[in-house]
């Protein structure tokens, strides 16, 4: 145990290990995540349902969803955005690698010609033979990816966008990064909890890195086995986001306080952007 905890307390190289899939595919954790998504007033796994309503209204006003626009919702979860957009008349495809979330999205989807198409898949390895007017990546998904993964995803998004199409997404901000502090702590869950239905310890070690990157490294210790979860979070301001996307052949056309159309404010913990491929790239 000493050797394990010593290793757990060692600062890993940025993005040297990637375990995000476990949050969405481990049967117990995936159910916990789904419950957080469906909490109407919570904002842990997704925004409150009231905030989601505002976002969908703005997306409709800004991009004309109700005119039958083709929308690709990457990391769609249980369809909280996709089903709302479909009700407005958008033709929506939702992608997520959580089978439980996709099953919920399908159960609650509108019937008829506007029913969304839901696909269980990892959007990092996705091949699509169609194009879309609007592609969404909501609730900071971009921030959880490594630079290599971000570059690969943006290349795919470029290939999926119809001429004149837009990519709309949100990110966590450097204002959040500035408030995050390195820490080490543990909790004991004798009756089970988020990470396991069985008694377990959760050892958390948080590391900060240059370039506004931080890591929450969890060690989940049960009686019979131990596992680790690495949650990376890349934070941005508008300048760093524009610089990274520019190097990958993209142009940020709008910086917003949120995808509900709120004005950008540098002190917020997150912000949103609309981007399009740079025709000169």
Q: How would you characterize the overall build of this protein?
A:
- Helix content is 30%, strand content 30%.
- The protein has nine helices and eleven strands.
- The protein has helices spanning 2-8, 21-25, 27-37, 49-63, 82-88, 99-107, 147-160, 174-179, 238-247; strands spanning 70-74, 91-96, 117-120, 132-137, 161-172, 183-189, 200-209, 213-221, 226-234, 250-256, 270-277.
- The longest helix is centred in the N-terminal third of the chain and has 15 residues, at 49-63.
- The chain is globular and about 60 Å long.
Summarize the structure.
The chain is of the alpha/beta class. The protein has helices at 2-8, 21-25, 27-37, 49-63, 82-88, 99-107, 147-160, 174-179, 238-247, and strands at residues 70-74, 91-96, 117-120, 132-137, 161-172, 183-189, 200-209, 213-221, 226-234, 250-256, 270-277.
Kindly provide the name of the CATH class of the largest domain. Alpha Beta
* Name of the CATH homologous superfamily of the largest domain: Vaccinia Virus protein VP39
| Beta strand count | 11
Strand count, sense and barrel status of the largest sheet are: 7 strands, mixed
N-to-C series of helices and strands? HHHHEHEHEEHEHEEEEHEE
Choose one word for the global shape.
globular
* Structural class by sheet pairing and helices: alpha/beta
Mean pLDDT over the full residue set? 93
Percent in helix: 25-40%
Q: How large is the count of helical segments?
A: 9
The structural domain count equals 2
Could you say what the CATH topology of the largest domain is called? Rossmann fold
- DSSP strand (E) fraction? 25-35%
Low-confidence stretches: none
User: In which order are the strands of the major sheet placed?
Assistant: 3-2-1-4-5-11-10
Rg measurement, Å = 19 Å
CATH architecture of the largest domain: 3-Layer(aba) Sandwich
End-to-end C-alpha gap: 52 Å
